[in-house]
Write a structure and sequence with these properties.
By secondary structure, the chain is an alpha/beta fold. The chain contains 13 helices and nine strands. The strands form two sheets. It has a six-stranded mixed β-sheet, with helices on both faces. A three-stranded antiparallel β-sheet has the order 2-1-4, covered by helices on one side. α8 links the parallel β6 and β7. α4 packs across α7 and α6 crosses α7. It is globular and about 75 Å long.
């Protein structure tokens, strides 16, 4: 009896010493996340091109997909991520999932994570629904025994009883995404990353999807939802984040974020105002770390592609080409590059 009462006495003593409960850590924390893609201007596709032009250095452009993005998501929170096309929403989710590496910043995840960036990834069109459900559910983290146990639930939700033994290459696109969504909702992860999967099937099936999202929210699971559907954001999300050109524009109440999103889509004045704000903030904030990063990036680029100062050989070739062009323009034959024998 004394041993059994020891934990109770310890709990009472802890409550007396620390009357304020310690808050649980956030489920997801993103701190200063930045991601840049290098887009080459000219690509070498064949070995012949590489052999004919061994010293050609193709330039590249830099696309800054994410710029210093920071936010935190509490356990059990439904967090919406919205923005126009090209704003960096899917890139952010892929960085959270570990598909992309980050250039700067940190990501902290507290819990088991499952990603649904594209429905039906991993489906084999030459296999029937039964085998595809087993493979896809296993890829999403279920054990083979659990996948077999939940197979009937998947088929019931997808409404595909008559097509269980049909190969997926004979499925319509609607049947495919219904099956993929039915597999997705069986995952037991505590943190879900979902990218544009609500527009599935007809109106009746979409209502089933909405009911399933409501169940996930009641279960207290953490969801990060990327969508263009502002009605779904207002209906499900506790908070929302608006991205524009990789930068955070608004974070907070879903209604306010949704209204701001619609302004950026349909108001040229709002887009111009945001562009002026971005230019002013970019001129105003030049932290030392960013200057060091830019210097290091320039040093790496100089090391990889050679110095920007033209070499002696390059200047000679430029002078020869200029002389040849001027000679052809005056009607005289171009100067020969062969050396005369002594």
């Amino acid at each position: 009896m004394e041993a059994d009462s020891a934990p109770a006495r310890h709990a009472a003593q802890t409550a007396r010493l620390y009357p304020v409960a310690v808050p649980s850590p956030p489920a997801v924390v993103v701190d200063g996340l930045s991601k840049t893609f290098r887009i080459p201007r000219e690509q070498v596709h064949t070995l012949k091109e590489r052999a004919l032009h061994p010293f050609r250095r193709a330039g590249h452009d830099e696309l800054r997909a994410l710029r210093d993005v920071s936010f935190a998501v509490e356990p059990g929170e439904f967090f919406g991520i919205v923005g126009r096309n090209g704003s960096g929403k899917s890139t952010l989710l892929k960085c959270l999932a570990g598909i992309y590496g980050v250039d700067a910043g940190d990501i902290y995840v507290n819990g088991r994570l499952s990603t649904f960036i594209e429905l039906g990834v991993g489906f084999n069109p030459d296999l029937p629904a039964r085998e595809n459900v087993m493979i896809n559910a296993t890829m999403l983290g279920l054990s083979p025994r659990e996948a077999r146990r939940r197979f009937d639930e998947v088929i019931d939700f997808a409404e595909l009883h008559e097509f269980v033994d049909l190969k997926l290459k004979n499925y319509s696109s609607g049947m495919m995404v219904r099956l993929a969504f039915a597999v997705m909702i069986q995952v037991d992860a505590s943190i879900l990353l979902i990218d544009e999967v609500l527009a599935v099937g007809d109106a009746a099936f979409q209502q089933k999807c909405f009911d399933e999202f409501a169940r996930i929210r009641r279960d207290g699971r953490t969801v990060l939802l990327v969508t263009h559907d502002m009605a779904a954001v207002r209906r499900f999300c506790d908070r929302a984040l608006l991205l524009e050109h990789g930068e955070m524009v608004e974070e907070g109440e879903p209604m306010r974020v949704g209204n701001r999103y619609l302004e950026l889509n349909f108001s040229a004045e709002a887009r111009a105002q945001l562009s002026r704000w971005r230019r002013s903030t970019s001129r105003r904030r030049t932290p030392t770390s960013r200057r060091r990063t830019a210097t290091a990036t320039g040093a790496r680029r100089s090391w990889r592609r050679g110095s920007s100062t033209p070499t002696v050989g390059a200047r000679r070739r430029w002078r020869r080409a200029s002389a040849a062009r001027s000679a052809r323009g005056s009607g005289s034959p171009p100067r020969s590059r062969t050396r005369s024998s002594a």
